[in-house]
Amino acid sequence: MNSPPRVPANGLEAVFSEMRPALVRRAAAMGAGGDAEDVVQDVWLKIRNAEGPIASPQAYLLRMVYTAVLDRRRGTRRAAARDAAWSNPAHLADGETETADAERRLIAIQALREVEARLTALGDPAAAIFRRHRIDGLTQKRIAVEFGMGLSTVEKHLRRAYALLLDLQGDQS
Fold first, then answer.
1. What are the tens digits of pLDDT across the range 40-62?
2. Does the global pTM surpass 0.70?
3. Number of domains in the chain
4. Roughly what angle, to the nearest 10 degrees, separates helices 57-87 and 12-27?
5. Cα separations in angstroms, 115 against 36, 87, 105, 140
6. Is the dihedral of CA 21, 26, 32, 34 positive or negative?
7. Is 52 left (phi over 0), alpha (psi -120 to 50) or beta?
């Protein structure tokens, strides 16, 4: 019995390009909705580091999309739980609530000012792209069309903004 031919890892990119529309449809059907393109882009970034031959590249890519959608769902649930816990001061005693709220507001305002200062220093288009993606909720593909640039350029600008904010997070630790 002959086994199917194995596709070298770098050939996986060609299979991905062929299957991209189907992968986007799969992600959307799994509930990714408007994030389907972003999910598939995440898969693309992961397969670029794939090593070794892949026996069934189509099944491999479909599974990666499935996993990426689940990871995104889990992340959304964790963020919602974290936001709910942050906004509910029920764990504080009655007398501490007002003080804690005022402190939280002050800390949030200071953090927001620092983020704004860093984004301003980063300059456009990276700062504008970051705001459109993270604040306005636009997909990377839609931003690329809006700014008249390629998807990879949008990703480059987002990586710069994220790196800048990660540095800020590290500075506060």
1. 998 998 888 777 788 888 999 99
2. no
3. 2
4. 50
5. 28, 21, 15, 21
6. positive
7. left
